[in-house]
Write a structure and sequence with these properties.
mainly beta, single chain, 95 residues, Umud Fragment, subunit A, 1 helix
Length: 95
Amino acid sequence: MSWPSIVEKLRDGESVQLTPQGNSMTPRIRSGQLVTIVPATLEAVEVGDVVLAKVKGAYRLHLVKALKDGRAQIGNSHGHVNGWTKQVFGKVIDV
């Protein structure tokens, strides 16, 4: 399933389960681990939440590092920051 189709499901109010690949979120989420994402808006997330967001044109399943001026700073579990965004589509509720 592609990121745009996952975003469409979340926008329709559906929860989504997927197995993301990569090590950017270890140890919180390991490559291939099943995660459940529920619809969420920027206003409903907190620092430390793992969200599905679009940052600089790329979809990221990463941490909210900071919230400021109606935007979220998104980054991975290893200190990298991807940037700021207003586009948050869902929040991980189960790994």
